[in-house]
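User: Second chain of the day. Same drill as before.
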Amino acid sequence: MNTVFCRNKAELGRRAAAAGARRIREAIRRRGAARIIVATGASQFEMLAALAEANVPWHRVTAFHLDEYVGLPLTHPASFRLYLWQRFVRRLPLPLAAFHYINGEADLAAECRRLGALIQQAPIDVAFVGIGENGHLAFNDPPADFHTRQPYVVVALDEACRRQQLGEGWFPNLRAVPRRAISMSCRQILAARAIICSVPDRRKAVAVRHAVSGPVTPQVPASILQRHPAATIYLDPESASLLKRPARP
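Assistant: Same format as last time:
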């Protein structure tokens, strides 16, 4: 896993988006189309804003949703479907070829099968992801399942994950945070040709240290990114503060 140290969150967002946009354009030049995975959460604000402004022929891009809460209505402020529409899809100058949202209100097994069939039709060119405070990758909380071949799975959210969602301001109290989600599996994320991981903020520093410098273990789900030949993690000085290597641009 390559590590890119940035001077601040704004630079992190620009550099991560620029790298992802290059990969998308390369795929379109090669095959006439590209397929991407898009993450959500506070860590993706700057990256998604920059990506939406990138010089990309978006009408040739098909996007997949990384994860979504079970049972949360589309209109809920914490809905990731709503997040992606507001912060990415509606900001694009051209409509995407398709965006395959996760419907957490549907029959869960059927929804996982539907999305799995769609994502396995062709390779993913770029996966945009983040890392949770507990080291999760998508909503694969520790100990994560590194072996399932199912592209999408129903997962239980641990308390640390749920407290992160509360701390970021998405919910009024811990009881309101859902206990389950549909998540893209770790193996499916690693199947992408390139992975762009954006991780700002000091509250992620411990997770970053374990994911980048520690052993690959289900107890730190994001550590599996070490096994990907084209995964790059973008850090700001706060998130990189516990790494041995100094955070330099």
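The mean pLDDT is 96.

User: Great, on to the next one.
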